[in-house]
Amino acid sequence: MFSLRNEMKTMEIFEASLKSIEIQENIKTHQIGISDFLLENYCDFVHISLARTDNAFSGWIVHDLEDVDEDEEDQERITVGDTVFQHFIKEGSQLRLYHENRIIGALHLLRYLFEIFSGPIEYSRFINGTIPTEKTSNFLIDIYRLNSVKECEHVTIFEKGMSSKSMMDEVLDLATGLKRFDLRCTLPDDWKNPKILKLDTLICWPAEWFTTTDLLTTLDCQCASINETNLKWQSFKAFMLKWQMTENTRLKWLEISFDGNWEGFNSDGLNAKEWNPADRDSHHPDLLEKPGSNWQNCKFATDIQRNHDGVLASFWRRENSFHFVVWHDPHPIATLQPDPRLLVKLEEDQFLSSSEDEDEEEEEEEED
């Protein structure tokens, strides 16, 4: 009889499931979840990695049958679900499998894995190490038809993961549970799909497809980091002026990088002001969960206020980026009580405050 232990890796559970139908069915009843699912597709193999807890990965590497070493005398078959793999090699927590068609074999294997690991997937990541083709596109789309993957809330698709606009649209249609999307694929400048701009959290680059119209009318994320756009600073000022006039209660955090500069920027019409400790805290939680920093120093940011409810937002500028934080809770330090060591003070030269710009302009005028 199968007994699930907390320290069991996914490979141990998988191997137990192959012993009998009874054990397989018993494993399914536990609704075992996956903390991290990583799929890597390369020119000669597919690598599937699953972890129940952080970094405790087991891996399945699927090769084409023709790649079996000719010196392998004893080829041993293994049946996984209803799929026969003509040969396998066990290497610790890794299992190499050989199938007539590695893509078909990998898809059948995934179907079986997500039948026995029937709980939710916390994070899914996809790496395509080959030139995107229709074959690789269909493979990813077929994976997204698996219920566990459809319902995954946190997804990363790395470079070369998308081969066309239609593929991206189909993935967004299938990903019914998607809340946080980290997209690192190049898409055509004319690509449009409002679904991507309504997720809770969006991280994407390059994003040359993201326009001023998207910023002003379509963007409806809670948190977004949109990189390598073709926007100008005028778009960011228009966004802030519009934010002051709207009743948007969803946006919390926005950062956008762009191929341009801040020459000519001014805060006219924004009623901007410097930080006042009575109005808000000096630091805000980093809602994009950047490695190494859980809080963002906003002491040197510039504040603006929304007209109808008085909610504050802070913005700051770096050389080629715009940053905007809404203070739904003006005193998050008191609310969350972080370790004071996390509140790392950022250097003043990381920010281009409005007052610094004005000082520079005055100096230039004096020189003239």
UniProtKB/TrEMBL annotation:
<feature type="compositionally biased region" description="Acidic residues">
    <location>
        <begin position="355"/>
        <end position="368"/>
    </location>
</feature>
<protein>
    <recommendedName>
        <fullName>F-box associated domain-containing protein</fullName>
    </recommendedName>
</protein>
<feature type="region of interest" description="Disordered">
    <location>
        <begin position="347"/>
        <end position="368"/>
    </location>
</feature>
